[in-house]
Amino acid sequence: MFMADSERGGVTAAGERMLVSGRGLAAWQVRRVMNHMSNRLEEGISLAEASAELGLSPAYFCTAFRLATGRTPFAAFSALRIERARQLLTDPTVSITDVSLSVGFQTPSAFANTFRRITGMTPSQFRKFQAVDPSLRAAVYTGAPGVRDERAAI
User: Fold this and answer.
1) Buried residues in 116-130 as b, exposed as e (16+ CB within 10 A)
2) pLDDT in tens, 57-90
3) CATH class for the domain made up of 9-70
4) What is the pTM assigned to this prediction?
5) In the CATH hierarchy, which fold is given to the domain comprising 75-142?
6) What is the dihedral of CA 105, 110, 111, 115, to 10 degrees?
């Protein structure tokens, strides 16, 4: 009996669902690769390494990841780095340069540009914003007017 592409799939030995053709990655695959990315924030991760984590070709992985998450692997990795940077920036004793290096950016300017693109403010502005009124922190995460939150749009 032949199965249509949309019915293809199965279960791994660990009981996890396998990739369903044409629909991107399965939820367990997204979790696995995102966890791997999270563990590699400082060193970085190549597309080949991320795809090898799931045993897929880089081209197929990139397309399947985008179908499953709505963003590219690079955009997801950048968002993870910035999310971790947001956490580190709440500690005023840690310099912005140290934060940028600890989340894997080669230069503080590259970090600041990426941070600004994703959050709508520079790391310094974010830190000052946090210091003025910590109860306003949620505004950054919920996409309040005037604050860009690209986590869902990347």
Assistant:
1) bebbbbebeebbebb
2) 999 999 999 999 999 999 999 999 999 999 999 9
3) mainly alpha
4) 0.71
5) Arc Repressor Mutant, subunit A (1.10.10)
6) -140
